[in-house]
Write a structure and sequence with these properties.
Elements (H helix, E strand, L loop, with lengths): L1 H18 L3 H28 L3 E13 L9 E6 L7 E7 L5 E3 L6 E8 L5 E11 L2 H6 L9 E11 L3 E4 H36 L5 H35 L5
Parallel strand pairs: 2-8, 5-7
Antiparallel strand pairs: 1-3, 1-6, 2-3, 3-4, 6-7
Helix pairs in contact: 1-2, 4-5
Amino acid sequence: MILILLLLGILLFIGGFLLLPTKRQRFVGGGLGFIVLVGAATLMIGNDNWHWGMHQETTTQTTNIASISPSKQVNLLIYQPIRQANKERVYVYRLANQSKRRHTAANVKTHNQLNYRDVSQAKLQTKTTRWHYNNALWRDLFSWTGHHQTLVKRQNTFILPHSWTTLSVRQAKWLSQTVAKQEATVKAKTTKAVTAAVIAAKEAQPNLTQQQLKQIQQKATRTAQQQAKQQAANGLARLLKQAQQQPAK
C-alpha cells in the first residue's frame, strides 16, 4: 500500500502543478500530492532504517543433538574458525537419530556459545529475534516492500555434558589420523602376540590338534583385544588433550 501512496503522491504532485486549470487548483492539488509524497517517503525511510510500526519478537527452539564422532567412546562437537579463531566459529553438529551433518550460520547476526552442565543429553538452544509488524494495518501498509520478519540476531547455545569435547576441524583431523596410526600399531601387536601364544603352545605340547590350536588362538585373540581396548580407553583422554593443543586452523 505504501508504494501505491508513493505513486499517487507523485502523480498528484506533478499533475496538480501542470494539468489543473487554475492557480488555486494547481496549488491545492500539487500541495496535496507533495504532502502524500513526503509522508509516504518518510514512512518508507522510517520503516527501513528505524523499523517504524514494528517490534522485536524472540522465539526459542531446543533440539537434542548427537556427537558427530564415529566412535561411541568420544562425544565430539566440531567447529571451523572464521577470521578470528577464538571469537567467530561455525559449529558442525547433527540432530539426535539423524546422520546428516548440520552447521550454524556464518554471519554477523549469529552468535554461538558453549555451556557445559551436569546433563546427560546434549542440546542446542536457538533464540531467534526478528522484527514483526505491530498490527495488521502496518503489515498491509508495507506489504509489498519485502521487509517482513527481518532477522535481528540469532543466539545458539550448545548445552553439553562435561564428557563432551570441542575440537576444530583441523584438530579433529589430527585426532583421527593419530587414532588410525595407533590402531594399526595395536593391530600389528595383537597379531604378533596371538602368533607368539600359538607357537608357545605348540612348543609346550607338540601333539595338540588343530581344534585345540584354534581354541588357543581364539583365547589369545580375545585376551589381546581386551588389553588393546583397555589401553585405548586409558589413552583416549590423553589424545583428546593433545588434539586440543594442536593449532585450531
